[in-house]
Amino acid sequence: MTSARSRRRLHIRLAAIILTSALIVATLGFLANLMSGAFGSMTDAANQIDDTRAISATNGALQAMQKQLGATVRDNAYWDDAFNKINAIGGADWAVENWGTTTADYPLYDTALVIEADSKPLVAYHAGTSLAAPFDFYDGSFKDILAAAHRPDPNRNHLPVTFIRTKEGVAIIGAAAIQPSAMDPKADPATYKVLVFSKQMTTAVLADLARNFNIKGLAMSEAVDEALLHAEIKDINGKDIAHFTWPSERPGTKSYDRVRSTVISAAVILLALLGAIAVTGLAALRGARYEERVSNHRATHDALTDLWNRAGLLDQLESALETAGATTVSLHILDLDGFKPVNDAWGHAVGDELIKAVADRLVRQLPAHAVIARLGGDEFAVISNRSPLTGFSSVVPDCIQQTLSTPFVIGDRTIEIGGSVGTSISGPGALDSGELLRQADLALYRAKGLGRGISVNFDPSLDEEASKTAELEQELRQGLTRGELHVAFQPLIDAASREVSGVEALARWTSPSRGNVPPDVFITVAEKAGLIDQLGFQILETAVSEGANWPDIGIAVNISPLQLKNPYFVGQVEGILRSREFDPTRLTIEVTEGVLISNPEQAKRAFEALRKLGVKIALDDFGCGYAGIGALREFGFDRMKIDRSLVVALDHDDKEGAVLQATVALANALHLPVTAEGIETEEQATAARLSGCDKLQGYLFSRPISAKEITARYFTPNPNPLSRTG
Fold first, then answer.
1. Residue partners of 324: CB distance under 8 A and separation at least 6
2. Which end of the chain is more exposed for a tag (fewer CB within 10 A), N or C?
3. What is the block-wise mean pLDDT of the chain (726 residues), using blocks of 10 residues?
4. DSSP letter (8 states) at residue 156
């Protein structure tokens, strides 16, 4: 019995052990399956998170490229110099110099086009060489891009920046109508020329994208391989033209493969690894967020200085205006004075270092809550707030000027520059960002017109002045086309014989609506509007044509220092002389002292080429500026004209006679013949002659008169010889 009971108890225990073991095995199996499933789900989640990160990074890369190209197109298209130069004589050459040649090695674009309003290409360059048929180079959507660039865009925030198929593959492309920085609401965008930049999506470009945005194996293809991750590349019409593709990194799977054997052998290790996968997922998520932050930073910050760029500035400005509350928001635009000569003298590398040094100083010396941006080139912007208590904005322009007052040391060079500052101020909700930017630009324009190191606050009168200037510019443009400008001639009299020895050609404009417009007014407008070449050559051509009727006397024509910046100036002068069969030795080009500072080296080259033709060079208005003996020697003028202020002063101060004699003696020591301007009395004529002036000019002899009057007075037979001297 006892033995039977013992066996039954043993059987029960064995059964219990077997059942318990079975339960344990089943439980372990269930747990293993549960953990395996959980592990698999977390592995898939980690893979999905990383795939999402990669897709987000790739889309961010596309957006960053579009924003960067858009900002480049905007900076170059909405630019007064570009608008003026491209619509003036030699506009195509200017475009080639500034945009065409840079396509050879510029990182942001390898193709640059300027398309006329009638869709004819004015300039087309690709990879540093001329592009013969741009409309054949791009696919059909290129016309849609041009049409989008011509559409009205009041806020200038809808530039067509997209992708397009080309003969070389796929390119990113942007376009904008070339127009002034201050938009003319009356202008028709359809009449503007269009600037187009594009960049081929080459293997090198893809490699840079892959490296900058951490996308391994990035490639471009037309078809989509479902085994690869991809992002669509669309044209302006939303049509897929290509795809970015790349393999999934699958970090979850890689982690699982490394620990699979350990997981199978130990549940604890499995659970630990599950925790590790969770950490990996979080890290992948953090990585995606980091890549997104990096992409946004690159899209809104300047690559050279790491300040906000134009797009970032507008975002910050809108945010400041929205949250202004009781404070005012001020925008200060800074344009460096004297930066271009630094680039010309020492190259762009030194110029870039100077830009970074300026940015560093602004960050260190402006108040901490100022928002500082670089708008492009040598232009910066600062956003500041002013509360009724602090008055912070009012000191920012002074702080900027103080910041630039200390010379910069770049390598072994000490560089002195200044800055012009334009400021606009908005109360809570008073102005939007675009209007604030426009007003600051107008104030900056006024500051630069007043000289170096000037700060100007926007005033409503600037709007009125800008409007009046724009109207006058438009009337002058029409007047040049209609032939409203004419030439008056003032005789140059031989001091000894009192015979006419030459005439000076003077530009005159009689406007149908304004009447006689003073030369100092319309010539200044012509210089600022890029019309000075057209005006100057009209006057020269008329003067030479009329002068051909007056043998044996010289013709003097004034030119603007800006005309000497035209690389084709001398060739055009030669062409006019040849077409009129006019002896170059009878022509004298008169320049003011401004030519000594605007571009002295280019002026010297132009003077040398003109002298080879036989043309003489005279320095006009000597004595009213700063030109000294060094400049006279360096430029080698053929004649000096003394400013009328030295002559007029003879009537008021006996000492001025000594000044006049000393000035003429200086010229005579350099073997320079001298003309005295502004002669109105016989006493002045006598004093100028006795001082050594060989030619006289002024109302005593004649006011500026027409060509017919010159002919009648000096070249028509007359029994009274005194009539030849007026």
1. 385, 426, 427, 428, 429
2. N
3. 46 54 56 62 73 80 85 89 90 91 90 92 93 90 91 83 93 93 83 93 88 85 82 90 86 67 63 62 68 82 93 89 78 89 82 94 90 92 70 72 91 90 79 85 85 85 78 90 93 94 94 90 88 93 93 92 88 94 95 72 88 93 64 81 81 67 84 92 91 93 94 75 42
4. S
